[in-house]
Amino acid sequence: MFESTRKRVRVRAWRGRRDAPTVVAMTSRAPAPAARVLLTGFEPFGGDVHNPSIAAARDAVGILADRGVTAEAVELPCAFGAAGPALTAALDRVRPEVAIAVGLAGGTATVRVERVAVNLQDARIPDNAGEQPVDRPVRADGPAALFATLPAKRAVAAIREAGVAAEPSLSAGAFVCNHVMYALLDAPGTARAAGFLHVPWDAEHRPTPDTPALPAADLARAVAEAALTALAGGPTSTSPAAPCTDLPGPRVRVGAIARARQRRRRRPRTTGRSM
């Protein structure tokens, strides 16, 4: 997609002589293009040696490269205090067109495309830094919730079409995953499309044989398909706090009410008498 170019530049060395030889110089390769997609995952948590979220993000970079898309994967600390600054630094450095954070959700064999992040930190267990906030906001003066600008329903459809189980989700929890999703959507000047995916354990590293899991290749494919869907279209608002456009809106409810009223008008009136 992006090809390095060489330019032949003719430089005339005068040095006070009109008959000085012409020197032909070759410029260095053009700098690599900035990543269009930023993918993040988490470091291993709670004594684990592996976290499928960052593994899926890194593997997805290769899949996207095969499709002509430049991407970068960044590992975030699984800690409330450190994850936000690390994410902000990655966004400032990469300045991506699409940003997708990935986290682990055990107990399921389905990829979940999150649609909303809440302004709440309510940890039932400590993070990797030993911090355990309870009933605290992500940002004190922030909105109660922020909707993903990643086209969630289209992403779910694309992931399913790729042969991977997926579903939309309306709860990213209240642990570090939700914290990062909220911070991503709340970041000023963030990507055109941003969102969060929860992936299950990969079958190759699940902690027990009966832990629900999917093959690692499927997790990477799901992340890549979500990124490609976002690049192909969807919400174009530059505001990361924009509401998700595919949520059922008031028009749906109003239309349903109008139809119900029309049906009631067509019904024959009864006198209440028994025959």
Helices and strands in order, then pairings?
Blueprint: E1 8-12, E2 22-26, E3 37-42, H1 52-66, E4 71-76, H2 80-94, E5 98-104, E6 111-114, E7 116-118, E8 145-147, H3 152-161, E9 166-169, H4 176-186, E10 193-199, E11 201-202, E12 213-214, H5 216-232, H6 250-266
Parallel strand pairs: 3-4, 3-5, 5-10, 6-9, 11-12
Antiparallel strand pairs: 1-2, 6-10, 7-8
Helix pairs in contact: 1-5, 2-4, 3-5
Description:
The chain is built from six helices and twelve strands. It starts with 7 loop residues before the first strand and ends in a 9-residue tail after the last helix. The strands form four sheets. The chain has a six-stranded mixed sheet with strand order 4-3-5-10-6-9, with helices on both faces. Helices cover 31% and strands 20% of the residues. Helix 1 links the parallel strand 3 and strand 4. It is globular, with a radius of gyration of 25 Å. The chain has one domain: Peptidase C15, pyroglutamyl peptidase I-like (Aminopeptidase). It has 275 residues and is of the alpha/beta class.
Oligomer: single chain
How many beta-strand runs?
12
What integer value in Å does the Rg equal? 25 Å
| Low-pLDDT runs | 1-32, 235-275
Q: Which fold does the CATH topology refer to? A: Aminopeptidase
Helix and strand run: EEEHEHEEEEHEHEEEHH
Q: Profile the largest sheet.
A: 6 strands, mixed
CATH-scheme architecture? 3-Layer(aba) Sandwich
Shape: globular
Strand content: 15-25%
Distance between the termini: 79 Å
Q: Helical percent range?
A: 25-40%
The DSSP helix count reads: 6
What is the count of distinct domains? 1
CATH superfamily: Peptidase C15, pyroglutamyl peptidase I-like
Reading off the top of the CATH hierarchy, the class is best stated as Alpha Beta
Structural class: alpha/beta
Q: For the residues shown, what is the average pLDDT? A: 81
Strand order of the largest sheet: 4-3-5-10-6-9
